[in-house]
Amino acid sequence: MPLVFTISLCGIVFASLSTLRQIDIKRIIAYSSIAHMNMAVLGLFLNNIYGLFGAVYLMLGHGLISSGLFFSIGVLYDRYHTRLLFYYGGLTAVMPLYAFCFLFLSFANIGFPGTFNFISELHIFLGVFKTSALLLFFAFIGFVFTVIYSIWLYNRMMFGTLKINYLFSFSDVNFFEFGVFILLIVFCLFFGFSTSFVVNFIHNWSVFLHVF
Q1: pLDDT on residue 132
Q2: Opening angle at CA 54, ends 143 and 8, nearest 5
Q3: Cα–Cα distance list, 60 to 7, 50, 65 (Å)
Q4: Is the model's pLDDT at 133 over the cut of 90?
């Protein structure tokens, strides 16, 4: 367990620092996924119910939220055919619906209260605290890094000067894209407030597998 804890914490910090150094938006999301999966591994090896539930819930939430973030990058690439962060800025002026959806997914990725990841990370932190206060301190550093690179990415893309020298023919999300975003947002909020639904499902499925 100490070896796994050390590897997981190093993975969280290293992936977060690597995220801050990327210039490709898709790589930023990918490195943030590595950090979250290290958090899930940390929860699995805590050997208590809080960590186990938090890890399972985090994997489910990450599959939903990370898919939404990658879809967000795909929306931009479909329009402007570049993933380099340098070419983006001031998108709130021309893509307000997209800016709102990306803001919600960024907050969900951070673990904002009411979203999927909030429940999972809260339980992992509770499990870590029951194991070691020092371990909680280093795990919380990883959470702080998540807030930093998520807000940094959103600020670089959505605010500042609109790069009209590089990007043109601006258009907000269409009906299909907005529908996908709304579906993801609804699921994030539903599972953020209805944790009992997932808990009961996991419990019933584990009982079923144990019996058969």
Answers
A1: 81
A2: 50
A3: 22, 15, 9
A4: no
Q: Torsion angle of alpha carbons 27, 153, 99, 180, nearest 10°?
A: 30
Distance separating alpha carbons of residues 70 and 31, to the nearest angstrom: 12
What predicted TM-score, i.e. pTM, was given to this entire model?
0.85
Q: In residues, how long is the chain?
A: 212
Confidence of residue 69 (pLDDT cuts 50, 70, 90): very high
Residue 21 tokens read as 């150094």
> Is 34 strand, coil or helix?
helix
pLDDT tens digit sequence for 159-180: 888 877 777 777 888 899 999 9
Helix or strand holding residue 25 (H, E): helix 25-44
24-39 per-residue burial string, b: 16 or more CB within 10 A, e: under 16: ebebbbbbbbbbbbbb
* Phi–psi pair at 159, nearest 5 degrees: -115, 180
Structure tokens at 81: 């055919």
CB 173 within 8 Å of CB 102: no
